[in-house]
Every structure is written in C-alpha cells, then in structure tokens.
Specification:
single chain, 7 strands, 4-stranded antiparallel β-sheet
Length: 72
C-alpha cells in the first residue's frame, strides 16, 4: 500500500509505502519506471517531502524521520 507520493519534477516521482520503502520513479515511454529503492525505517513510511534539489525526508511509524540524498 502506498501512503504518500511527491512529484519532484515533470519526470521524477517519489513514493513511500507499507513495505518500509522509499522509491523513485522516472517517466519513461508513457509509463513510470522504478529507478531506485531505499530501505532504512523499521516500520511503515507515512510521508515524503522534498528538501531542496538534492534530498528527501521521510517520516515513519517507527517515530523517526530520515534524510535521503537523491541520486544524480
């Protein structure tokens, strides 16, 4: 189950979900394709927000927030 989605640009989307992941998706041939997957939380990830151009922050049910660098 996906809990939050953030459009980072016209071609890049971030999502967080019940499986404790942060995933990045890039628009390809008329569909989004997964380009990265990050794990680090111990429980569901509820929210994702962009911090400037190169980073994201996630908030989890495990009572932590984590900062992630967006790969170039």
């Amino acid at each position: 189950m996906i809990f939050d989605v953030k459009f980072l640009s016209d071609e890049l989307v971030a999502s967080v979900s019940d499986d404790r992941s942060l995933r990045l998706w890039r628009l390809g041939d008329a569909a989004y394709q997964q380009v990265a997957c990050f794990y680090g939380h111990r429980s569901r990830v509820w929210k994702v927000r962009q911090l400037g151009e190169g980073a994201l922050v996630t908030v989890s049910e495990d009572t932590t927030c984590k900062v992630w660098e967006i790969p170039g």
